[in-house]
Amino acid sequence: MIKISNPFAESTLTEHIAAEDFVTIFSPVILEEASALFHQGNVVLAGTPGTGKSMLLALLKPETRIAYFRAKADFPVTQPEQRKFISAGINLTKAGAQDFGHRLAVDGIAGEKPIDLTLFFADFFNYYLVFDLLKNLETYLDPTLSPLQAEKGLNISERALNQVATKIASASCWFGYLDGIDDFFELTKSIDRRLTAYRSYFNFNTDELSDDIRSSKTAIGEPIATVVSILRAGRIIDSDTSVFIRVDQVEELYHLEAQYGLGSNYRQVINKALAMRDMRVSYRLGMRHYALEAETHVFGTASRLEEERDFFIINLDNVLKRVENQKNWRFPTLANDIFARRLESAGYLPKKDSAVRDVFGTPMARDELAIKYAGKATDRLLDLEADWPNQWKDFLKSLAAEKPLSAKFGEAWARQRGKSNVMIEIPDKDELPWAQKRWWIKERNEHALMLIASKAGQRMIWSGDIDLYELSGGNVHVFIAVCRHIWQAWLRSESGNTITRQLPKIDFSIQATGVYDASRSWFEKVIPHGFNGSSRQRIVRELGEWMSKKMANDKAMSNPGHNGFSITEEELADDIELSNWLNLATGFGDLVTAPHTTKLRDRKLRRKWYLNPILSPYFRIPHVHTKEPIYTSTAELRKILSVTSLIGDVKPQKKYVAKSSGNDDPGQLNLFSENQK
Fold this sequence. Notes:
By secondary structure, this protein is α/β, with parallel strands linked by helices. It has helices at residues 19-25, 53-58, 62-70, 92-95, 114-139, 146-152, 158-169, 184-202, 211-214, 222-233, 251-260, 263-275, 289-294, 316-320, 331-345, 355-360, 366-374, 390-402, 404-417, 438-456, 465-472, 476-493, 508-529, 533-552, 569-574, 576-587, 616-619, 634-641; strands spanning 43-46, 85-91, 242-248, 282-287, 312-315, 564-568, 591-596, 606-611, 630-631. The protein has 4 domains: 39-320, no CATH class; 326-362 and 462-527, no CATH class; 366-456, no CATH class; 530-676, no CATH class. It has 28 helices and 9 strands. The chain is elongated.
């Protein structure tokens, strides 16, 4: 017996993936929708966690390009002019953006003023980017990389770098801090010392920040643009070589708002870099939607960022979300490619275009699924009213023994017609009146299966390629997590058996176990891990249980769309506190939202929400969205969510922002900045 590891056990976090592994697992499918990433101009990659923002930004890193080169693998960007770039970048989480709030003067405690902290942050940001760019250039001193130098339009040698070092150090943007340096390596060391001084100060390793640093703060965006100009003038970078500036996890600045009240200022600093529209560099920002929408002001001005002028958006959620026409849905192609690449790296030989279906098959037919749920307990599946005609009840019981799904539809059909209209004459089993209503049946398939599974005391079953794609909700991270749990369940089932490198065909029951494990893990472990995670988990739990009860109690299946809810935009705008919580949960992917076309006569604009599909197995509700969601109000939602202690059942009389100590204490939580009230 050979030992087989789980191909999906490796981290899905890009920052934890080695460059050489990135080459084998990165799927170029998404690049078809993100080609703007390799053109001039500022680009924002927006999406919930797991949509691929960091993966796409990682393509711009020199270590990634070098890994492709050393592996003799085709770099996924095929156009020569688009491969001609170099980049510098900062990951705001890894760089320690949170540290800049530690020295804030609050409640009479001595410390830095918010404006000074903002300028320190801008200066740190500038130095970090320049340091990263110079170190990236230094990487290409390796003579084995000369072909890459030529491809990228670089002419790097130690002599050339030393020649430009003096010009860089003497540039006016540094306000004299780097004066006198004439050696490239001393230049990078001096820049690094300044970064270290910031880290040391904001982590309380030193008591003071030197006067040299305090008197030489740089203007946002100017140093990196100046350095690029000098590098081009010195012919180290060709005039047509693009310089991309990667800024990942911008939402970290949003989180600073909750902890220190500084996030708005820091976001405005980043906004100013974009608003400069400096053609010497092009910014590439990766962020979640709430971080983009929460603050558009430009630091030090009355201006706001303008989409299509200051930046372009690549909305990865929209690119990958489910569409009505299955053929136009991009996610299955992406997921299948990722799945096949993971299997290949584990030693399997999958078919590139059908790997997911080859392993997981297709979803079970709904009639077959109902029979699986019912087992031998068909007599328990129906909720028949005592005063219904006996002939009618006997007919449905008989039908349930053969076709439990059809019998459940018959029960709902009867309930919708009312007792007085239930026919006495028994229909032919081959000409059932409800079976003629094709759309009525289609809209209630999943609801009926939910009710049957509940009556039979069974968990709902998700299996097959389409079910797994839809449960993933267009999210790569979720898809890999589902595959990991299914594969782990399969390995457990094969304990003691001989396992080979032959691609397995995993039974639906094992898939169902893995899916439920993934759903439970997502609710119990993934959601609480993020910003305000325990609070968001409480909100998801109350909403999930509310919608589950709604659907379970709807025996007539009159509302098969009640696994979602809808509120008017007018009410949402009038209840900032509740809206902020819903938006935060949406930004982290706990909920999904979309505009909703109302069916009511008032024609008011509405917005609808659903749980992330991966949470459906945990709450035992259908993942598909049909018919109308629950038409609710902010007042009703407040009552439902008041048990979380986060939101009261009465709306605040005025819009306020509570101050926070940075924990999950609902009484101290501050989600947004003062200028967003």
